[in-house]
Amino acid sequence: MTKAKDSTTGAKNQPITMENYSPVYGLFGDDPLARDRFLGKLRELFTGSDPSGLNHEKFDAQESPADVVLSAAQSLPMFSTARFVEVRNTDALNAALLEPYLAYLADPNPTTCLVFMGESVDKKKKFFKLLEERGYLHLFARGNRTQMMATIRVELETAGLKFDPDVPALLVDLLGTQDLSLALEKLKLLKAADLKSRLTIDEVFSAVGDGGEGAVFTFIDDVFSRDVQRAFEQLMRLKEDRQQSPIAIIGLLARQLRALVFLKSNETPPGIPPFLLGKLGGLARGFTWKQLFEWHSALRDADRRCKSSRAEPWLVFEALLLSFFVTKPQK
C-alpha cells in the first residue's frame, strides 16, 4: 500500500457549491488536518443547506457493511436537494470488501455526495484505480518531518500562541499520524488566559499526553522498554479508542525502531529532537543487532498482513506484540 502523494489539482483547489459538487470524493492521505478541513467545508456546505440533519449520515467502513452504506447513498434526499454520506477507514478494507462499491462508483447517485476517507491508497485495488480514473481521488500528504514541523509552527502562530523551540518537534513525536486539530484546540484552551507566556514542553505533555495521542506515545515507550504488563494494559486502552489504527501504530513502532538502528550504529537519527536522544540511546544499548532484525521482520510481516489479508487487524497486532516478548527457543 502506497502513501498518498499531495495533489496540486482537484477538489481541494476548486470552489464547491450545491450546483457543482462531485457525487463522490475520495479523501485520502496522511495529513488528517488538511483532509478533515476539506471534509469540514463539504460538511458545512451540505448541512448548511439542510439544517434538519435528515440527509447526513456517517459510517465506519470497518463496522458497516457495504450494502448498508450503499443503501444510504442510493436513497433520495428528504426535504433537500442532496444527501451527504461520510465513510471513514475505507483504506482498512481488503479488495473483496471494497468490490461492492465498484458498481456504484461507475454510476453514482447524482443527488448524493458520498465521501470515502482514509490514510493511504493501494492502487493495485480496483476501488482506488476507479476513484482515480473517475477523477474522484484527492490526496492530502503531510510531507516529511521538516514540513510537518513547519505546518505545526504556522498553526501555533495562527492560533496566537508563543512556544518554546522544541514544541513543534515534540508535537510531531506525540501525534505521529494522529489528528493535529484536536491537539491544537487543547493547547489553545490551555493558554487562553495567558497568550503572552510561551507554551512549554511540560504544558504540551499535560495537554496532549493524557489523550489518545499520548496513550500511543506511552505504549511505544512501554514496548521498547519491554515492559510486558504496561504494554498490554495500554493495548487494551488503545483498542477501546476507535480513532486508533493498528496499521498506524505499526508505522510508529517502525519509526522508533529505525531511530534505535541509527543510534546503535553511533549515528544521530534524522529528525529526532535532542531531548529524546538520551532516552533512545539507552534503549538502543539494550538491544542486540539480532533482536533489532527480528523486530523489524515482525513489524514488516504484521504490516503486510494488516493491509492485504482478511485477518482482523487487532489480532494481527496482538500476535506481533507477543512475538516481541516471547523468548524464542534456542536451536
Descriptive labels:
single chain; 331 residues; alpha/beta; Rossmann fold; Zinc Finger, Delta Prime, domain 3; five-stranded parallel sheet; globular; disordered N terminus
C-alpha termini separation: 35 Å
Count the domains.
Answer: 3
Helix content: 40-55%
Going across the major beta sheet, what is the strand order?
A: 3-4-5-2-7
What name does the CATH topology of the largest domain carry? Rossmann fold
Q: Provide the gyration radius in Å.
A: 22 Å
Low-confidence stretches: 1-11
Average pLDDT works out at 82
Give the strand content: 5-15%
Q: What is the succession of H and E elements?
A: EEHEHEHHEEHEHEHHEHHHHHHH
- Contiguous helical run count: 15
Beta strands, count: 9
Fourth CATH level, the homologous superfamily of the largest domain: P-loop containing nucleotide triphosphate hydrolases
Structural class: alpha/beta
Major sheet size, sense and barrel closure: 5 strands, parallel
Shape label = globular
CATH C-level label of the largest domain: Alpha Beta
